[in-house]
Write a structure and sequence with these properties.
The chain is an alpha+beta fold. The protein contains 10 helices and 19 strands. The longest helix is centred in the C-terminal third of the chain and has 17 residues.
Length: 444
């Protein structure tokens, strides 16, 4: 004999009309007590609605993308009386209030109709789990438990579910890719919100077959920065805006202030003025001093301005950070630049001196070039590239006059910034650079 039991949404406190982001079962599936039926999401947390009985799913009432409230029927389950089924859902005590995703309930049994892939955890995990990336991944508690059982790093899995949530099928697909060797390309491309699944691999070539070669290992810094740059380029839609700034007056003022700076043991470089100009521009355009959160659906606007700058060192590219650049005058910025640059060259930078950047400048002015496309230092949303200034004829006041022009290359994340806003940013920045005396004092 069998009977049909309705499984309802448990008490969730003051929540109602909660979004159903995933349906985990279908009619005909076997389900155990506490096995997950659907996944719900509020503004603060996610939870699975567990089955209060063991049996076979007869009908699924809740729909993906719909909403439910406490007491609503989620599904009906056919229960065999001879199996000692539990009492109907209505007789069960209320479940605990909704819990944060970081502290999920005890792992449920895996539904019999959807067994886990027959692979061991070490074979399924192409790399060690990065706990910070795992915790930030957009996935339900049941999928997190499933991923841990297989040793899969959710931070490297691309979600295809509702609102880009990672589903159990996404985890299985990642395992299959890892087992076939395709996962390595995907894993190397992952590095933040979004991802590049199924990227084509670069051909392996025996270069020695064509002549003499020398193999030289990459430096530790090159290995670290290379992976970060690759992840940023793959995951962020880059666009670059090019412009020029008239820095004739700026260079004249800098030359006049050199003696005063030297007396204080400070080297007053053009980059110090550029940082001060960026500070003023970021105050005017705060979107460029922001980052997307882990979900990719919210913009985090930073109330501080920490400017990173690319430093060329014997061991590779490093990005020290001038913290609180908006609170420093031109001499303090120049002093910070000199100290950080020296530490970068000698390899004595500490961790805090390379963290917290909200906007980055890459200056090639001392080397050359007319323009380039800098790669955004994710999770920042923009980076300014500066090339070598040169004298150009500029039509001004009815005649062509020689002016010192500075090429600007602004790369930005097109998910956050559009072309019109980028053009306004570089235009405003050029205007600020053209009035250098306003750059001497810290922004109040």
């Amino acid at each position: 004999m069998t009977r049909v039991v309705e499984v309802r949404v448990p008490d969730m406190g003051n929540f109602k009309d909660v979004a159903v982001i995933d349906v985990l079962v279908k009619p005909g599936d076997a389900i155990e007590i506490d096995g997950p039926l659907v996944t719900l999401e509020t503004e603060k947390a996610t939870m699975d609605v567990p089955s209060t009985v063991a049996g076979t799913i007869e009908k699924v009432i809740a729909t993906k993308g719909g909403t439910v409230s406490p007491g609503d029927v989620v599904a009906t389950v056919q229960v065999a009386d001879a199996a000692g089924a539990s009492a109907p859902a209505a007789a069960q005590p209320p479940a605990a209030p909704i819990a944060a995703a970081a502290a999920p309930p005890a792992p449920p049994a895996v539904p019999k109709a959807a067994p886990a892939p027959a692979v061991s955890a070490p074979a399924a995990a192409p790399v060690a789990i990065n706990e910070s990336g795992f915790s930030a991944a957009h996935a339900s508690p049941s999928v997190r438990r499933f991923a841990r059982e297989l040793g899969v790093d959710l931070g490297r899995v691309t979600g295809t579910g509702f609102k880009s949530r990672i589903t159990e099928e996404d985890v299985k697909g990642f395992v299959k890719q890892a087992l076939t060797g395709a996962g390595a390309a995907t894993a190397s491309a992952k590095g933040g919100a979004g991802g590049g699944r199924g990227l084509p691999s670069v051909p392996v070539v025996d270069f020695a077959a064509f002549g003499k070669v020398e193999t030289r290992p990459l430096t530790r810094i090159q290995k670290i920065s290379g992976a970060r740059l690759h992840a940023s380029w793959v995951n962020l839609p880059h666009v670059t805006q090019f412009d020029e700034a008239d820095i004739t007056e700026l260079e004249d003022l800098r030359n006049k202030l050199k003696a005063k700076a030297t007396a204080q043991g400070i080297k007053l470089t053009p980059l110090a003025f550029i940082i001060r100009a960026c500070v003023r521009t970021l105050h005017h355009f705060p979107t460029f001093n922001a980052s997307l959160d882990a979900s990719g659906e919210n913009l985090v606007l930073k109330k501080y301005i920490h400017i990173g700058f690319a430093a060329d060192t014997p061991n590779g590219l490093m990005v020290p950070v001038v913290h609180d650049a908006d609170r420093k005058d031109i001499y303090e910025v120049a002093r910070s630049l000199g100290e950080l640059s020296e530490k970068a060259r000698t390899g004595t930078l500490n961790v805090t001196q390379m963290q917290g950047g909200s906007f980055t400048i890459s200056s090639l002015g001392g080397i050359g070039g007319t323009a380039f496309t800098p790669i955004i230092n994710a999770p920042e949303v923009a980076i300014l590239g500066v090339s070598r200034s040169s004298m150009k004829p500029v039509f001004k006041d009815g005649a062509f006059v020689p002016r010192l022009m500075l090429p600007l290359s602004l790369s930005y994340d097109h998910r956050v910034i559009d072309g019109a806003l980028a053009a306004r940013f570089t235009t405003y920045l050029a205007q600020v650079l053209a009035e250098p005396r306003a750059l001497l004092e810290a922004v109040p």
